[in-house]
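Intended use. Records like the one below are meant for learning the mapping from a protein sequence to its folded structure. Do not use them to infer anything beyond what is encoded.
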Amino acid sequence: MLSGRYQFEFLEAGCDEAGRGCLAGPVFAAAVILPDGYDHPLLNDSKQLTEDVRYQLRDEIEQTAVAFAVASVDNIEIDQINILNASFLAMHRAIEQLSVIPEFLIIDGNRFNKYKKVPHQCIVEGDAKYLSIAAASILAKTYRDDFMKQIALEHPEYDWHSNKGYPTIKHREAVLKMGFTPYHRRTFRVSDPQLSIF
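Structure written out for the chain above:
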């Protein structure tokens, strides 16, 4: 069962990103402040949920949250500052857009660039431990999926409607055969055996 809060002294926002390991498209991030005492039986790490449940929960989160925001960093910026810094920047942009200013941040992962003077705690696999991070993971994932489905219409041969920009065999083969699109991250090696298959 996921916990509602990491700490109870300050108003807390959970943050997570989606799309770090992709060959194409932006990295998206979300920040979510949930009401005290909030719980939902289906809310979990977005990777553990079906697409239908993710979209169902997105509506629920957006209607229930004290505040939420989603932001992105595009492939051009990713190539300029690297994917790790781009992930942090996307989170910063999401936090910046919150209608309520958080006093404490919980971040999925083990690293983060401090946002202004707001204290934070990094939590490995935080999207499977805290509700607000799980909610942020769902928003980041679904908004990114929406974006990838939209640009898939421009470049159907890369199968983005299915792989969402991740380095599947079909996606890699399309890049090796036809080259990069304007949405590809040029600093990611397409033939790198280290890249995980999704």
